[in-house]
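task queued by scheduler; priority normal; single chain, no ligands, no partner chains; default sampling; output format set to structure tokens
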Amino acid sequence: MLKILIAGDYYMVPGLIKEIIQEYLGNELSKQLIFEAVRFKYPEEEIALLPETVIPSGMSFSHHSFTEKKQNSQAENIKEYYGIFDALKNDIINKHVLIVHGAAVPKYILQMAKELKLICVLRGGPKNIDIIAARELGIKIVNTPGKTARAVAESVLGGLLSLTRNIVSGSWSLQREGIWKPDFYRYDLCGTELKDSIFGMIGYGHIAKELAALLKGFQLKKILAFDPYKTKEEIESSGAESVELAQLLKESNIVSLHARLTPSSKNILGKQAFEMMRKKPIVINMARGNLMDYGALTEALKNGKVSGAILDVFGDEPFKEYKELLSMPNVICTPHIAGGSRETVMRASKMAAEEIRRFILGLPLKNEIK
């Protein structure tokens, strides 16, 4: 029998994941599995934005202390996790498969799991796992790339329409201010349409491709994409035009970030990039906070280099550094929720189920991290 531990939470619900896996595998394969589950308190209901609060960026916000991190030196290869380092120590013993969302899986926890053979991470970037240690111990790791692509793509489109069509500001005036504002029909205040716009994407992975498909119905002039890790053929096969970053910044009416955070992409939208923009674009960041220099963005909004911003993620500065930016009427911001959808949970569960099926049958894993 294969013993499986599902380490879930209030988003990746263990009971639901179990049901989806059993349905996917069918009766014969499911009979070979024994499930146990642990459910962690993520996400939190609310986090007060005090001046010193570091704005949470997904699961990178957790309540462990600096002292605890120093004491657990073997946890140095993990980040973007929630909870405490040893949360799994009592549950992972004698398990063959771990299905995990955001709980920490450091080296010393892996060393305790003598029977563990496979980890299914219910996220694209398995930064909460000590991958180096897992390799050393012969434990296979699979992830779920692209599971949030549709959810984030729809969030980008929803945010963009909310800003360009004055949906958020119009709703705010009615609900919060108690004012009927027909002046949204003034030429200088009324919204704009997406038709004939040039949409620029920095990074062209799963989310960008899904977004490009959604945008086809809006009759854009063109979609530009910059991604040094993709070939021209890969980009242009799905309807975008492959260009250099400078051209994208100069020509785009909308600039949307979809890149992974690397040393070379950190602050890829900063003061220099904003100075290169010629069309006073709307800028969007639903990827990673540190892709954007938010101080430079605030100045670009003030001086008219940028006409608006849609933000779902933020950097590592305390809230006081963002307060002015978040109060601007041409800024829409959400608390890192773009990737959250019920369908995302179902997709991730089915992807994990397929990996378990392959593992049972001795077939090559589909999304193994090597």
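post-processing summary
- The longest strand covers residues 2-8.
- Residues 62-71 have pLDDT under 50 and may be disordered.
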